[in-house]
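Sorry to interrupt, but I need a hand with the structure work. Could you write out one complete protein record for me, on any chain you like? Just paste the record in under my message, thanks.

. . .
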Amino acid sequence: MKDAAASFAPRAGVSFRLAPDLALVLAPNPSPMTYLGTNSYILGKDKLAIIDPGPDNSDHLAALLAAIAGRPVSHILVTHTHLDHSPLARPLSDAVGAPVYAFGNSRAGRSEIMSQLAAEGLTGGGEGIDPTFEPDAILRNGDMIDFPQKPITALHTPGHMGNHLCFCWGDVIFTGDHIMGWSTSLVSPPDGDLTDFMRSCDRLQDMPARIYYPGHGAPVTYPKARLAWLIAHRRNREAQIIKALADGSATVSALTKVVYTDVAQGLLPAAERNVFAHLIDFAGRGIVVARPALGVAAEFTISDTAADDQT
């Protein structure tokens, strides 16, 4: 069997067959944050489900409708409500008469600390949220959708965003932006929460899968190995930040320049968000102290307790 990742060469607007009962239509929104563009998946043969309709783009809507080709659509599923994944859900729903399913709106699933930071005025970065999104039906962790051939199970995987869902379908998992092959996932507070992200990785470790289909880029054909690498990558970032803080207190910006020495200048803001996400996680675990208060502009110092543990 030809490797699914090696043969991955979709063109925007053209249905790309991944398996007899699975295709994708690539959205025309390539960028440093979205890679080739958003993967909108079409599941089924005679009756369809759509995962991640994508950005609000009339050409992409036309391409999806052409790929659907008049077949009935029973479900429109949204992994999360960033602007590159969810805005086309409502226009597609209107066009095909199918309800939209998601964990909730763009505030759903936020952790307590992220809700607090948002209330204090912290805004997100990266892809941008879909502020008006509201699903027709709510999916919770473990909810099962009856679908021809095999059911689809929702798996709540907050981290990249509080309302992020993965979808299990037989021996494959649609991982949205949680696990991708081409890049690590951006965790940008207050939309993203690194503590939740790592817990979601642990949850996925317990889910058997032959292949991951991500929201951007090629299929992940060695899912367990990729997941293990991503967890190790995050732990390595933790160690780098702690090592940098051993020299004294520092800001998010200063730490980013020490830790991300090989990142392009244009991606430094996203890198700063990832560092801030680690620092929030550290603060919650009692590893660092933020002064005068937890926020992007704070000075971060290793806590006395953590310092004692290292000696």
